[in-house]
Amino acid sequence: MSEAIIEIEQVVFSYVREEGGENIPALDGVDLEILEGSFVAVIGPNGSGKSTLAKCFNALLLPEKGRVRVRGMDTGDDERVWDIRKTVGMVFQNPDNQLVSSIVEDDVAFGPENLGVEPAEIRERVDAALRSVDMYEHRKKGPHLLSGGQKQRIAIAGVLAMESECIVLDEPTAMLDPSGRREVMEIIRRLHARGKTIVLITHFMEEAAQADRIVVMEKGRIAFDGTPGELFTHSGDLQDLDMPFAVQLAARLRKRGIDVPKDAISEMDLVEFLCASK
Ligand code: ADP
Ligand code: MG
After folding, report:
1. What are the tens digits of pLDDT across the range 26-52?
2. I need a surface site. Which of 3, 41, 50, 141 has the fewest CB within 10 A?
3. Ligand 1, residues 12, 15, 218: which to mutate, most atoms within 8 A of Cβ?
4. CB neighbours (10 Å) of residue 147?
5. Is residue 147 part of a domain?
6. Cβ-count burial of 203 within 10 angstroms (0-12 exposed, 13-18 middle, 19+ buried)?
7. Residues near ligand 1 with C-beta < 6 Å?
């Protein structure tokens, strides 16, 4: 059994309206454990609380009720905030808001510099992180010369250079073109294969289908938590989810009497099944 990196217990959170009036509820009793080495996708309609939840993971927001622990550290404990932020690294949606330096490698070094890592080790970490996202050759460039997908890969390298165990990505591909999206997903899959814990918030079902677990948020609560296969076959009572193409096709084939297995959720699964059947 893997250990939990993040434990969320009965978390309630609402935003305080500055001009007065009712608070805006965002999380309404969320229980969730993120296990070491897992790849969890979080999906759900706009305003369902996904980003708020992500910000609770590393003490950017503190729960109003309930508890969030990262490797056993309570996010409400002021003295552990930096250890928590080092353990859980975040990548956000807008590639242009995340890069702060005028040279790519300086940007990647920013995190470890702030953690007080020795210069020689920073050098090693930055080079390794840039290689992990296939951006080493671009290390001397200005971020403004990069595509959106490359910028997101640099943001991911920044988290890797801090040696975060868990990477939380909040719609990292939302502002990218299809090729940028593919690049970023390829890096995410690779990091997961190398043992990083990944939490990917996404609007794209095809991306969520690549995770080993999908959590669906609805109105500040968890409406579903299970494997992609379970979600795609038992989603009748969830709000109109936009199913991946392969899942829709499998459902149509089943209607025509072709006995497609329930765990066929990607194009590749379908190709393998159809090629194997006569
Ligand atoms: P999601 O990421 O799923 O779209 P959010 O966590 O951003 O959802 O939002 C949850 C709820 O909190 C929504 O009703 C949203 O309007 C509200 N909200 C989010 N951020 C703020 C904020 N900074 N101030 C006030 N309300 C907010
Ligand atoms: Mg959001």
Report:
1. 999 999 999 999 999 999 999 999 999
2. 3
3. 15
4. 14
5. yes
6. middle
7. 15, 24, 26, 44, 46-52
